[in-house]
Amino acid sequence: MKGFKHLPGPTSYPFIGNLLGYKAPGVGRSPSQTPHIWKYFNQQFGPLVRLDMPGNNPMVLVFDPNLAEQVYRNEGVYPIRPGFDSLGYIRSRLKETGGNEGLITSSGGKWREFRNKVQYSVLHPKVRETYLTTVHEIGMEFADHIQQNLKNGEDATQEFYKWALETIVAISLETRLNCFHPSQQDSVNTQVLSLMKEIFHGCKNLDVGAKLWRYFPSKTFRKLERDIELFTQITNQMIHKAIQKEKENKLQNTLLGNLFSRGCDEITMTVLATDLIFGGVEQVAHAVMFSLYLLGVNPDKQEILHNELTRTQNPNYLKAVVKETMRLYPPAVVNIRELRVPLELGEYSLEPGTVYILAHQIMSRNPEYIREPEQFIPERWMRESSQKEELPPFLTLPFGWGPRSCIGRRFSEMEIFSMISILASRFQIGWEGEAPLRIKSEIVIFPEGELSSTSRRDNNLKVKHSSENIFFKIKSLNKQTLLNFFIKEYQNRIENGRKAP
Ligand code: HEM
């Protein structure tokens, strides 16, 4: 068997390996172009590609769903997902966290202990059910807001982030920020969103290469430290207020109430809430924006969805639309595992400590595994459709896999289904820009450019995305039917214990 050094990969230079970064023809070497560069590597080198980063563990890109399955199946009881080292390091030293890193960055027994403490409450259907109406009401407020308030020159991306923030804060902190209210435009929501952006950006800069900030804290490191501390303090203050409500017995069946009744303390709730906000804002907002783009460029599919939403109580097409969106544009472009065991993968024998970058977005568009991969065909996910496909189970995994998979999956599905059903029933969604949509990545992927300005024409609300436009043309409005549809779907699911789509 061959070893790591025999794997094909981009040219690696003595001492510095690939430290100068990677590049591909036509897209250059900017880290924001990573998905395009990796696609090129897959075409050039095949299903397994070596990346050489001196000072880091050996890294292998995996582009084959069957090989990805082998990696996941060897992850053990404490799966390790490397990344966000600087975030974990700083959080573990904060007074407000009591040395607790939380879910996103911790590993081993510490991760398991924290996940065990919180997972029952986060995943419990009864807890989720408590938020159905709130999630839907926030969605309706968002739709009213963009219809009434978006003006020329305003950034609509920001509005989607505000919606996702409003929702996750309502769930995790029992607090309404009222992000869409004009008087709240410069308040805590803007501060939280800008802190999150700064934190993601800081982590991205500090987590590549040799992590010397542990010994020589740089200016960027100090700034990240201040941002994380402030973010945690804001969350902590909200938790503190919410716990007062709990003491007055007002939080029954809520997430915090459930955590409280299971003996979780204020620190655990603060750490969990920051995790849920970190995990739950950008990805959910991007999933909705990508769905709108795909519905905009596929009016025939939009029509089917609209008909389903307005005439039937059957949500299958909605689920398939979201699934197909996540295949084409999974908000997390890759998943990562570090294995503690040796692994024989294809014709290679790899050492313990190897880091595997599981490139699901690229596999999910490979014609070897899926028919017409670049086409938006929700029907391929529908059992009753003649276009239904049997796909490799480890091909498209937008929420990850196994015990370490996304803890917010059920909440995010609730939010995304609600928002798409509201927008697709209420507006005709159009797209006036370049297709296919260009994406770039900064830990998560997002549309390139900004949804930066809007204009109203007659009954059309037009949201401009740099040179691209998603426009919403008002179609119909039946708040009660939609709410019934939404609640019925979830009640069915909860009663039948059905699996996610
Ligand atoms: C479209 C929306 C979302 C996508 C695509 C997504 C995707 C992911 C992925 C791929 C992972 C890594 C899983 C693995 O390692 O196998 C993850 C982890 C995580 N997600 Fe999500 N997520 C989404 C929404 C959310 C929401 C709404 C929340 C919070 C309510 C959340 C909280 C988390 C947390 C805390 C983790 C770390 C779990 C752990 O390591 O134990 N995510 N997510």
What does this structure look like?
This protein is of the alpha+beta class and 501 residues long. The chain folds into two domains: 4-82 and 332-381, Uridine Diphospho-n-acetylenolpyruvylglucosamine Reductase, domain 2; 85-331 and 391-496, Cytochrome p450 (Orthogonal Bundle). It has 17 helices and twelve strands. The strands form four sheets. Strands 1-2-6-3 form a four-stranded mixed beta sheet, sandwiched between helices. It has a four-stranded antiparallel beta sheet with strand order 7-12-11-10. Helix 4 crosses helix 10, helix 6 (132-149) packs antiparallel against helix 17 (479-496) and helix 8 (188-206) crosses helix 9 (219-247). The chain is globular and about 65 Å long. It starts with 33 loop residues before the first helix and ends in a 5-residue tail after the last helix. The model is unreliable at 448-461, 476-482 and 497-501 (pLDDT under 50). The structure holds protoporphyrin IX containing FE (HEM). Protoporphyrin IX containing FE (HEM) binds at residues 81, 103-104, 115, 168, 275-276, 279-280, 283-284, 287, 331-332, 335, 398-401, 404-408, 411-412. Its cofactor is heme. Belongs to the cytochrome P450 family. GO terms for molecular function: heme binding; iron ion binding; monooxygenase activity; oxidoreductase activity, acting on paired donors, with incorporation or reduction of molecular oxygen. Heme binds at residue 406. This is CYP3020A1.
